[in-house]
Structures are given as structure tokens and as C-alpha cells.
User: Fold this.
Amino acid sequence: MSLISPFSRRLYLRIWLAVVGGVLVFAFAVGMAWRWAAEQNQQQPPSREIRITDAAGRTLVDGVGLRQRRDPSEGVLYRIESATGEVFEMHLSPRPPRPRPDERGPAAWFRPPFGFLWMLALVGIAVTVGVFPIIRRLMQRLEQLQRSVQRFGEGDLSVRVAEQGHDEVAALARQFNAAAARIETLVQSHKSLLANASHELRSPLTRIRMGLELMQGGTPSPAFRAEIERNIAELDQLVDEILLASRLDSGAADVGTVEPVDLVGLAVEECVRVDAELHVGSGDGADAMTAPVEVPGVSKLLRRAVRNLLENARRHSQGKITLTLTREGHDAVLRVCDHGPGVPPAQRERIFEPFYRLPGASERSGGVGLGLALVRSIAARHGGSVVCEDRPDGAAGACFTLRLPVTR
Assistant:
């Protein structure tokens, strides 16, 4: 049992033994086929056309000769049957013996029947020796992949496998690296989300606790009640956004049903909430209402994306807020522009990171830094994108452009 166990655990040894066994079976089959063919030739003596002429070239015998089976020491006998039905016999005397080399010399091993056996043995040895390093090299890549999977399972999420070649092993390595990168990103994202959420949850909880301590059993004033309600609403919004961000980052499939969503009707409802102006055009700058702009998506997610953009603009704008909805090619383009301080070019990508606030922004200004991150996640979930740009008219402020494909 101790001798069989290592072979059963090593895949490269099992493959090597399978190849060697296949070569041996093939050699045995070739030998049997060769022997059978030789026996068939002996059982069916060949016939040939025989023509005998005299010195003047006249044909004496012309017919088909069939070799008769007889002892080799008696020579060769052909029975010839001519076209007229006459039968002749042609006798060839035995071939004089040739001088044979010393039977004890090295050449004796290469003559039948040993020559064929030596040939099979040499072929088997060559295949056995030549195939082993090839199989071992292939198995080393699989063993490296096995070690990497083991390290990854033990918690080292940064481990990757070298992608060598273009065969199935290389494809497996690429798939493992892609899966490992995705899992590492999700884990890091969840860690960051948890750490930032812990910090953000403390602020409203601390304010509520301080307020309750200051109240000391007395009747709260309307302003105090409003502050408590605002903190509770902030907590509720934060928990809701954290849960939604977590589900979007993990690629959850049960975030809603994909259906045609009328962006015009959705934009009208959300603009009324924040008193924003809505312009719907065909993409050429016209403000006239046109046919509904529909995109396939999850209605509640798209509504959250539009609401977050408008809430962000209302929080920072010092003037009117404008939402422009147009159709550009195969995309529906939604632009939310404000008259706030704007976003520096160096910060226009970072503002889409979870819990990131611009320098100088305080917690009292509202928002927890998840709104724009959710907008980008929702856009990516629908095959779209969102960017922060300058206002098209060059005025102060920022403009957020959300692009969504009309067809998926």
C-alpha cells in the first residue's frame, strides 16, 4: 500500500504511467498485426504473370504462374497455366546457402526475431524518457496553481499565479487571477465600508446621546425635537445607503426587476422635490418636450441615482438647479448643473469614492459621502457612467453627467 499511494497522489506520475502503458499496448498491437500479416502472406502464395521466350524472342509459354508450397530445400516450383489451357511446371533449384555471420556476434541481436523486439524496446525507452520532462513541466504549473489556491484560501488575497502559455492551464490561471482580484477588491471595499460606516454612525449617535443628556427629563423644545429627528433621519439614510452600496458592490442579483423606465417622468417627480428646473430636448439644445426617453433598468435604482445628484446639487448650490435630459446617439444623457463652488479638477474622481468629502466640508453640511458613490455604482450596474464636469456655459458651479444606454 505504501508503494501505490504516492503514485495515486501524484497526477504527473499517473499521466506518465498512462502514456508509457499506451506505448506498450501500441507496440504489442503492432507486433501482433505484423505477425498476422506475415502468416496471411504465407497462407496465400502470390501468383504472377510468367512469359518464357526463346533466343529469337518467340513466346514459348505465356500464362499465370502460381507458386506451389513445398520445402525450401527442394527449391521453388511454379505451376503455369496458359491461355489455351495447357499446364506447365517451372522448377527453380534451391538458392545456394550464403555465408552467415557468427551467430555469437553483436549482429545476431538485430536479425529476426530479435531485431523487432529491440526496435520496440528502443521506441519504448525513448518515449518513456522523452515524455517525462514534458509531463513534469505541465504538472509543475498545476502544482503552482494548487499552492496559490491554498494560500488564497488561508487568507492571502494578494496571491496570483503566473500566466504562462495559451493552453487550458493558462486559461485556468487567468480565471483564478481574475476571480482573486475581484474577491480582493470586494473584501477591501467591504472593510473600507465597515470602517467608514462605523465612524459615520458615531456622529449622529453622539449628538442624540448628548441631546438626551442635556434634556435631563425635561420637555424638549421644538428646535431640539427637530434636531433629534434630523439626526435620526440621517442615521436611517446612512444605514439604507450602506446596505445598498454593499449589495451593489457584491453584484447582488435581487436588487430589482429590469424594465423600461421613463426618465422624463422620473426626472419630473424628482425635480419637484428640490425645486429644480427640467429641460428635455432631442439633443440639439431644444427645450421643447419630446417623446419619452426610456432606458432598461431598475426603477428604484435609477430614481436613487437621480435623487442623489439633485440632493448633492441642492446641498452645494447657491442658485437654481438645472436638470437637462437629452438623447445622444444610443445613450440617454442626464445632466444636473448647479451654481455652487464647483469641484477642483484634481478631486473630480475622488468625490465618487465612498465616504469621501471635499476638503473643508463638515458633517453638519449634510451627506455622508455615499451619495455620489452610489450614483457611480448604479450607473455601472446599468452599463452607463457618471462624470463631474464644468458647466457648459462657463459659469461657476459643477455639472454631473449621467449616461445610460437606451438598449442593453
About this structure: Residues 194 and 242 are 9 Å apart (CA to CA). The radius of gyration is 45 Å. Residues 283-289 have pLDDT under 50 and may be disordered. DSSP finds eight helices and eleven strands in the chain.
